[in-house]
Specification:
Blueprint (H helix, E strand, L loop, with lengths): L1 H18 L17 H4 L2 E11 L4 E14 L2 E10 L4 E10 L4 E5 L3 E10 L2 E12 L2 E13 L5 E9 L2 E11 L2
Antiparallel strand pairs: 1-2, 1-10, 2-3, 3-4, 4-5, 5-6, 6-7, 7-8, 8-9, 9-10
Length: 177
């Protein structure tokens, strides 16, 4: 009985803590420069990134070459990843603009679809990814926040969770040539 009470208390605590760090995308509506996803990613873009585990240790470093083009009214992003250990990966996003602030995206390793909201210089982007892990895959949730800076630099911070438990963070810096 005591184990069950302790488990309930632990789940309640995790739930409370994970609910405390939700930002509101609307708070960035007057931030500049104005970020328009389908304009920023047209053509060539390059990104540099790291993955940090839950203790903050950098476990992976990578670069991403991105080609973006409009196809039938959708933004198609071809992302080619090169990891520091020589591993290669590829993801192709098809992103649809729903209205002034809302986006929906699909990729072969995304479960269902991604949802995005853009205000001012900021985009929030949430999705579940079927991530390669050991000899299989694991479904993890990503909560991305992209912030456009002066001179076209875009900073992306993505928190990775599973069942609401923080697993790590991906940080990317994008720049157009």
């Amino acid at each position: 009985m005591m184990k069950k009470s302790l488990l309930v208390l632990l789940l309640l605590l995790v739930s409370m803590l994970s609910g405390c760090n939700k930002m509101s995308i609307e708070q960035y509506q007057n931030s500049t420069p104005h970020f328009v996803l389908e304009e920023y990613f047209l053509g060539q873009t390059r990104a540099w990134g790291i993955f940090q585990n839950r203790s903050g240790q950098v476990e992976r470093q990578f670069t991403v070459d991105i080609l973006g083009e409009m196809v039938d009214g959708n933004l198609v992003l071809e992302e080619d990843f090169i990891y520091s250990d020589g591993t290669l990966d590829r993801r192709v996003w098809t992103i649809t603009k729903i209205d002034e602030h809302n986006y929906e995206g699909r990729a072969s390793d995304v479960i269902g679809h991604a949802t995005g909201k853009a205000y001012g210089n900021t985009l929030s982007w949430a999705y579940t990814l079927d991530l390669p892990y050991k000899d299989g895959t694991v479904k993890v949730q990503f909560d991305d926040w992209m912030f456009l800076q002066e001179d076209g630099v875009l900073i992306n911070r993505a928190k990775m969770t599973k069942f609401g438990v923080f697993l790590g963070e991906v940080t990317l810096v994008f720049q157009r040539p």
